[in-house]
Specification:
The structure holds 2 protein chains of 2 kinds. Chain A is built from 5 helices and no strands. In chain A, helix 4 (about 70-85) packs antiparallel against helix 5. Chain A is about 75% helix and about 0% strand. The two termini of chain A are about 40 Å apart. The longest helix of chain A is centred in the first third of the chain and has 26 residues, at about 5-30. Chain A folds into 2 domains: about 1-35; about 50-110, no CATH class. Chain A is an all-alpha fold. Chain A is flat and about 55 Å long. By secondary structure, chain B is an all-alpha fold. Chain B has 12 helices and no strands. Chain B has helices at about 5-15, 20-40, 40-50, 55-65, 70-80, 85-95, 100-110, 115-125, 130-160, 170-180, 190-205, 210-235. The chains are: A mainly alpha, B mainly alpha.
Chain lengths: ~110, ~240
C-alpha cells in the first residue's frame, strides 16, 4: 500500500460521507411523499434481488481457493438454503451451513 | 404512543437483532484482521468501521487499496457496493418517512443489511405498528449489532493475526446471507428474482466490483415484478 496517511483518511472520510448520502437519500430527502406504485413493487424484491447476486461469486468462485469452485463450499451453501427454507429460520440455515462447511473441510482434509 | 411502548418495542428489536451477532462478530473480526494486514493503522481500521459502517464496501475498499488503485476508483467501487442501500432507504420511506429528521438521519446511519432486513420483515408483518414504534424497533435491532461490529473489529485488529488461514472464516458471510434469503422465497416471483440475480451477476463478473451486482439487482427486481403480474393475470 503506497498511500500517505492523509490519503487514507481522505478515502475513509469520503467513503463515510458517500455511504451516508446513499443511506439518507430517499429516507432523508424524499421523506413521506408519495412514490410511484411500480417503484414500491420493485422495492419489495430488493433483498432477494441483491443478496443472491452478492453471494453467487463467493460460493462458486471463492477467493480463498484462488477462484476455483470448491465442492465443500457449494454443498454448505445448499445446506444453508435448504435448512433456512424448510424451517423459515435464519439461524437454522446458518447452523446447518457452518456445520456442513467445517465437517466438509475436516473430511476433505482427511482424504 | 407512550414512551413505555417505545421502550418495549426497542427491547423486542434488540432481542430480534441478537442472532445476527453470530454472523456480524466473525465478519467484523475478519475485517480487523484484513485491514491491519493490509497496512492500515488501528485508528484507520476503526475509522472505517465506525464512520463507514458497511462491511462489504469496507472489504472492497481495502482490497482495491491493496492493489494501489487510484483513490477515485477505490471510492467508486466501494460506493457501488453500497448502492443497494439506496433501495433500502427508499423501501423504508413508506414506514419511517413521517419520523422526525434526526431520527431518519440516525436510522440512515444504521441502515445496513441486517437491521434493514429484520425491520422491513417486521413492518410488513405488523402494518398496524406506529411510526415511533417502528423507529424504536429499527434502532433496537441496530443496537444489538452496531456496537459489537466496532468492538469485534478492534478484537480482530489486535489479536486477529493468530487466526490460522485454514479456519476459512471468509465463508461465514455467504452462509449467513443465503440463510437470510431462503425464508424470503415465498412466491414464484421471489424465486425468479433470486435466480435472475445469480445468473446476471455471474455473467457480469468481469465488471468492476459492485457495478455488475447493481445491474443484476435491477434485472432481478424487474423479473420479480414481471412474474408477479403474470401470476395476477393468470388468476384474473
Amino acid at each position: 500500500m503506497t498511500y500517505t496517511t492523509s490519503e487514507i483518511w481522505l478515502i475513509i472520510g469520503l467513503l463515510a460521507a458517500g455511504t451516508f448520502a446513499i443511506r439518507f437519500s430517499f429516507l432523508g430527502l424524499i421523506g413521506d411523499r408519495e412514490m410511484p406504485p411500480i417503484v414500491l413493487r420493485m422495492l419489495r424484491y430488493t433483498p432477494v434481488a441483491v443478496l443472491p447476486g452478492m453471494v453467487a461469486r463467493l460460493v462458486f468462485w471463492p477467493a480463498a481457493t484462488g477462484g476455483q469452485p470448491d465442492l465443500v463450499r457449494i454443498v454448505a451453501a445448499i445446506a444453508a438454503v435448504a435448512f433456512a427454507y424448510r424451517t423459515k429460520k435464519v439461524l437454522w440455515g446458518m447452523g446447518a451451513g457452518v456445520v456442513t462447511f467445517y465437517a466438509g473441510l475436516w473430511i476433505t482434509g482427511l482424504l | 404512543m407512550t414512551a413505555a411502548t417505545d421502550k418495549s418495542v426497542f427491547w423486542t428489536g434488540l432481542r430480534d437483532g441478537l442472532p445476527f451477532v453470530f454472523m456480524v462478530v466473525p465478519f467484523a473480526v475478519l475485517f480487523g484482521v484484513v485491514a491491519i494486514d493490509a497496512g492500515l493503522s488501528l485508528a484507520q481500521t476503526l475509522g472505517f468501521t465506525i464512520l463507514v459502517i458497511a462491511g462489504a464496501a469496507q472489504f472492497a475498499a481495502v482490497q482495491l487499496m491493496l492493489d494501489n488503485a487510484a483513490i477515485g476508483f477505490v471510492l467508486l467501487a466501494a460506493l457501488a457496493v453500497n448502492m443497494r442501500m439506496a433501495m433500502y432507504s427508499a423501501a423504508l420511506v413508506p414506514y419511517l418517512g413521517a419520523a422526525p429528521l434526526w431520527q431518519r438521519a440516525l436510522v440512515s446511519y444504521l441502515n445496513f443489511d441486517q437491521s434493514y432486513m429484520m425491520s422491513i420483515a417486521k413492518f410488513e408483518e405488523k402494518p398496524e405498528m406506529s411510526v415511533p414504534d417502528r423507529t424504536a424497533y429499527f434502532l433496537g435491532v441496530a443496537t444489538a449489532i452496531a456496537p459489537l461490529w466496532c468492538v469485534a473489529t478492534l478484537v480482530g485488529a489486535v489479536v486477529g493475526k493468530a487466526i490460522p488461514e485454514a479456519f476459512a472464516i471468509d465463508f461465514v458471510l455467504p452462509i449467513a446471507f443465503l440463510s437470510m434469503v431462503a425464508p424470503m422465497l415465498r412466491t414464484l416471483a421471489h424465486v425468479a428474482a433470486a435466480f435472475v440475480s445469480i445468473v446476471v451477476s455471474m455473467l457480469l463478473i468481469g465488471l468492476p466490483s459492485g457495478s455488475g451486482l447493481l445491474i443484476a439487482a435491477l434485472c432481478a427486481m424487474i423479473a420479480g415484478v414481471t412474474v408477479e403480474s403474470w401470476k395476477a393475470r393468470a388468476r384474473a
